[in-house]
TrEMBL record:
Domain HTH araC/xylS-type: 209-310
Superkingdom field: Bacteria
Organism: Streptomyces corchorusii
Region Disordered: start-end pairs: 1-28
Gene3D superfamilies, alphabetized: Homeodomain-like
Record key words, sorted: DNA-binding, Transcription, Transcription regulation
GO molecular function, one term: DNA-binding transcription factor activity
Classification via Pfam families: AraC_binding_2, HTH_18
Annotated Low complexity bias: 10-25
Record protein name field: Transcriptional regulator
């Protein structure tokens, strides 16, 4: 299958890309619409894109990222969020080597980096990570540090993957790309949840943390609803919706996203290869297989069967 074709699995996000046009850049196009850019150029600049017909982005980005040490810095550029207002943090954000920083490719941040810094950038569609457009401003507000639980795991993996992708044979590179996308999806979901748990100290933060844990433990329960969640935490449904609205999400959207993430994970497991897609969907709380297939495609840009086939092909090719 062509990596630049119109297949849902390998399609590219339409737009005019500046990735790879700068001196000192190396670009590797991977399956699933993933591009990897490594830059050593000075001054440091992140790849940006604009939708067809849109005017060029302003020279100044929506925020400034500062690094005072040399080393490697990891970025995940999210496509498909054009039109969102820039989110202006109160202060500049200081990054350290190994940090993983999400950003909107339509509003790339301005970098203030030393000469001996290397950028490793992963460009992909937000839909592939199961993200709504409204998730992007919150996701890009703070980096994932290599001292965090998932950061400690993913920072070295992504760094090595960026180097390996350029020399790996096709089958190995394809499998690694699939793994990277799956892990980035998990990282994005956890990072959003951590931000919801880690708001400014007040009575809402521990309550929100308890609610999120409650939801995660009951994703397979088809009776999970705002009413049951509110009752379990002795609050009104109206107040529950208010808590989620302040986090820029809805109760239903969060539940659906977490269920979809679990379904997508299970569909890649060899131990579950004999389970039908309908059975996987039902286990994680989707009453209708048709509804599940529709929201899966809307979220990830491919059907559940295409996702399972992609994962299976990666396993088969890796074993050859």
């Amino acid at each position: 299958m062509s990596r630049t074709g119109t297949s849902l699995i390998g399609r590219r996000t339409a737009g005019t890309s500046t990735a790879g046009t700068s001196p000192g850049s190396r670009v590797r196009r991977m399956p699933m619409g993933l591009d990897i850019v490594i830059r050593d150029a000075v001054p440091a600049r992140l790849p940006g894109e604009r939708p067809p017909g849109a005017p060029p982005a302003p020279a100044a980005g929506p925020r400034r990222l500062i690094a005072r040490q040399g080393g490697e810095y990891l970025f995940v550029g999210l496509r498909g969020a054009a039109g969102l207002p820039a989110r202006q943090p109160a202060t500049d954000i200081v990054l350290g080597p190994g940090d993983i920083c999400f950003y909107d490719v339509h509003q790339p941040p301005v970098l203030d980096f030393p000469r001996h810094a290397r950028l490793k950038v992963f460009l992909l569609s937000r839909q592939l990570l199961g993200l709504a457009r409204s998730d992007v401003p919150r996701l890009t507000h703070a980096p994932v540090t290599p001292t965090s639980r998932l950061g400690a795991l993913l920072s070295p993996f992504l760094s090595d993957f960026a180097d390996t992708a350029a020399v790996a044979r096709s089958a190995v590179g394809d499998m690694l790309a699939w793994n990277a996308v799956s892990l980035l999806s998990t990282l994005a979901g956890e990072h959003l949840a951590d931000q919801a748990r880690g708001r400014e100290p007040d009575t809402r933060a521990p309550l929100m943390s308890d609610i999120l844990d409650f939801i995660d433990l009951r994703l397979s329960d088809t009776g999970l609803s705002p009413k049951t969640i509110a009752r379990a935490h002795h609050i009104s449904v109206r107040y529950l919706h208010k808590l989620f609205r302040e986090e820029g999400m809805t109760v239903g959207r969060l539940i659906q996203r977490r269920r979809l993430a679990e379904c997508r994970r299970v569909l890649t497991l060899r131990s579950a290869e004999n389970m039908t897609i309908a059975a996987v969907a039902h286990h994680w709380g989707f009453a209708s297989p048709t509804h599940f297939s529709r929201v899966f495609r809307d979220t990830y840009g491919m059907s559940p069967s295409e996702w399972r086939e992609l994962a299976g092909r990666g396993d088969r090719e890796a074993g050859e």
